[in-house]
Write a structure and sequence with these properties.
Elements lengths: L1 H36 L9 H16 L2 H7 L1 H8 L5 H25 L3 H9 L4 H38 L1
Helix pairs in contact: 1-2, 1-5, 1-7, 2-5, 4-5, 5-7, 6-7
């Protein structure tokens, strides 16, 4: 019956978007923190790491989802054992969403007033305390807004993945 197919499609979409968004959140925030803190003038300066990670993020953000999905077919087969279905769609959705969200979260982290970071350093805070107690709380509204944008983008991409798979 058509209502059963509609409900199955809704559940499949929720599963694809849910898993992909969770992984994008759990990997994207640390990736964004690394991009901000390893940059020139950051609290963990590592220019080589910053350049490599920035290049990876830029590379995966610049590839259209449909092309990325096709390019990842061998990797998807290796990871989930198939190239079609809900779990096969999760792989390219996650790989597309993570750098997208990481860049949005990075922008939010960069908007934190540098004076707050300097004040925390002047009070003797350790670098990880600055990340946990200054950077992330101050950037949280922007990160939440960016995550919302990522969810909408994932829903759009999951429609494409569902149409192909």
């Amino acid at each position: 019956m058509w209502i059963d197919r509609l409900m199955q499609g809704l559940l499949d979409t929720l599963l694809m978007v849910g898993v992909s968004s969770l992984v994008a959140l759990l990997v994207g925030v640390p990736m964004a923190v690394l991009l901000v803190t390893s940059d020139k003038g950051g609290i963990f300066q590592a220019p080589a790491l910053n350049r490599v990670l920035g290049a990876i993020v830029n590379l995966f953000r610049s590839i259209p989802f449909l092309i990325l999905m096709v390019a990842l077919i061998p990797f998807t087969r290796l990871v989930v054992g198939t190239t079609y279905g809900v779990w096969a769609a999760v792989v390219p959705l996650t790989i597309a969403a993570t750098p997208f969200f990481a860049r949005i979260a990075e922008v939010s982290l960069r908007e934190v007033d540098h004076g707050l970071i300097e004040a925390a350093q002047a009070m003797g805070c350790r670098r990880w305390h600055i990340v946990w107690h200054v950077l992330l709380p101050e950037a949280l509204p922007g990160i939440v807004g960016g995550f919302t944008i990522t969810l909408v983008t994932l829903i759009n991409s999951s429609a494409m993945a569902g149409a192909i798979g």
